[in-house]
Amino acid sequence: MLTLSFILVGLFLVIVQTTLFMPSPLWLVAPDFYYILVGYLAYNFTFLHGMVVLLPISMVLDVYSGTVIGMYPALCYLGYFLLRLIVAKIPVPKSLYQLPCIALSYLVVSWFLILLLDLFQPQAISSWEWLPILFRVFLIYIFSFPLFRFFTFLDKKIRGKISSARFTRSKHGNQFRQD
Amino acid sequence: MKKNTRRQSKGSIKTFRFVLFIGTAVTLVLILLIIILGDQQFGPVHKIIFEGVGPLQKTMSTISDSLHSVKKNYIELLTVREEKERLWQELQECRSKAYANRGAVALNARLRKLLDFKESSTLPTITAQIIGKDPSLWFRSVIIDRGTSDGVGKGMPVVTGEGIVGQVYASSTDYSKVLLAIAPSSAIDVLLQESRIRGILKGTGKNLYHLEYILKTAEVFVGDRVVTAGYGGMFPTELPVGIVSKVTRNRRGMFLEIEVIPAVDFRTLENLLVIERKKKEFN
User: Fold this and answer.
1) Residue range of the domain that includes A139
2) Residue A63 within a domain
3) Which of A12, A24, A75, A107 should one mutate to test binding to chain B, selecting the residue with the greatest count of B CBs within 10 A?
4) CATH of span B125-282
């Protein structure tokens, strides 16, 4: 239920990003909502659950955008692994660094992927430009505050329902009989 | 003695006043009779009265008008708040209608251009609408609401009334992805319309093209029109592509560095035409 809900939310965010937040093909102010979800999954989901949620979302992104198949799954999973690694290795409380880390990891992962593409398929992508990418990083940081609140709210609601359903689930047979 | 003299003089004054009053009254009655029974003409007496009463009437009329005006203004003031709210609402409605009309006019102009192109072109075309845009910074593509069920296939050129937009990159039954001509991976065979010099037009990811492989010996000027060459059968010939905006001759290298401003404004793309071509033509 939780996994499915977050898949649906992720797909909705991708659709919003490619329609509502993209009035023209050259529009710059289009925050990468999907990457904020990558961050949330890395911080709050189990390794496997996060991977499962990211798969359909990154595939839809691949369909909607670009000419290099596999670019978005690579971006999402690299970001996901990097953020999980940071969570596991840094002894500082997570709340202090989690939102800036998402934005910074986006910058690092994008830079790494563009570098790879520039080496192997230089004709396929635009050249690296600092100003637009930094602007996108800033947008991720800004939008991560409300989106994290929303994800947390959704997470609590769904997890609450699941746990209460487990408590209230009726057991079969006579529970008081002593054999 | 003195008292008797005073009484006598008082009595004579009274008598004089009475006679004077009666005389005046009789005179006035006579005048009135003469006027009424006379020749019914607006005589000098009337004119004197007219002149005397006129200003009074005028003054009274002015006062009356002022009073009426104050009364009217007061009554109007009582209803002005409601009137203001009604008018404000009306203004808002009119503004929103005007805004919608402006949008409709702009849409009409764009669709008219498309229609003109469709009518003037002998090539079969499919109209399409953009439903999604590539959010990345590195690629430039759009999603359109036409797919293989409508006759759209991979490689088909996509245009607007202004010129070329790109080509179909991939398609499903009902939707297609169009690689824009400004995408870094796009390359189109083009000609300079007047000099017929051939080059390759490459996208930059911005609202600008680079025209490559034109030798330094060629005469290229700012303002030259760039059109499709039609080699390889991908794009039809002579479709507008853009206008040369900058020509740079570097010391090194064989070729000119040429920048071309697209004929199509990629920032306002909405409706497109897919030129239907058979698959054979792309092989």
Assistant:
1) 2-20+31-162
2) yes
3) A24
4) 2.40.10.340
Paired tokens of A155: 């997470």
pTM across the whole model: 0.69
Alpha-carbon distance of A92 to A90, in angstroms, equals 6
List the helix and strand counts (H, then E) for chain A. Answer: 6, 0
A126 and B184 in contact by Cβ < 8 A? Answer: yes
* Least confident residue range of A154-163, B171-180, B211-220: A154-163
Longest CA–CA separation in chain B, Å: 155
Closest alpha carbon within chain A to B270: A24
Task: Tell me: pLDDT of A176 over 60.
Answer: no
Chain A residues with CB-CB distance to B141 below 8 A:
25, 65-67
Confidence tier at B225 by pLDDT (50, 70, 90): very high
Q: Encode pLDDT of B121-150 as tens digits.
A: 777 888 898 998 888 888 889 999 998 998
* Number of folded domains that form chain A: 1
Q: Which residues of A touch B136 (CB under 8 A)?
A: 65-66
Tell me whether residue A41 is in a domain. yes
Burial letters A98-132, b for 16+ CB under 10 A, else e: bbebbbbbbeebbeebbeebeeeeeebbbeeeeee
Q: What is the ipTM of this complex?
A: 0.80
Size of interface A-B (CB pairs under 8 A): 89
Contact A109, A75 (CB under 8 A): yes
Q: Which of A127, A137, A126, A154 is nearest to A100 (CA)?
A: A137
b/e per residue, B131-150, with b = 16+ CB within 10 A?
ebbbbbbbbbbbbbbbbeeb
Across the interface, of A25, A32, A114, the residue whose CB is closest to B180 is A25
Whether the predicted pLDDT of B281 surpasses 50: no
Q: In whole angstroms, give the CA distance from residue A62 to residue A56.
A: 10
| Interface probe with B: pick from A65, A71, A114, A138, most Cβ of B within 10 Å | A65
Contact A35, A65 (CB under 8 A): no
Residue B97: half-sphere exposure toward Cβ, Cα within 13 Å: 6
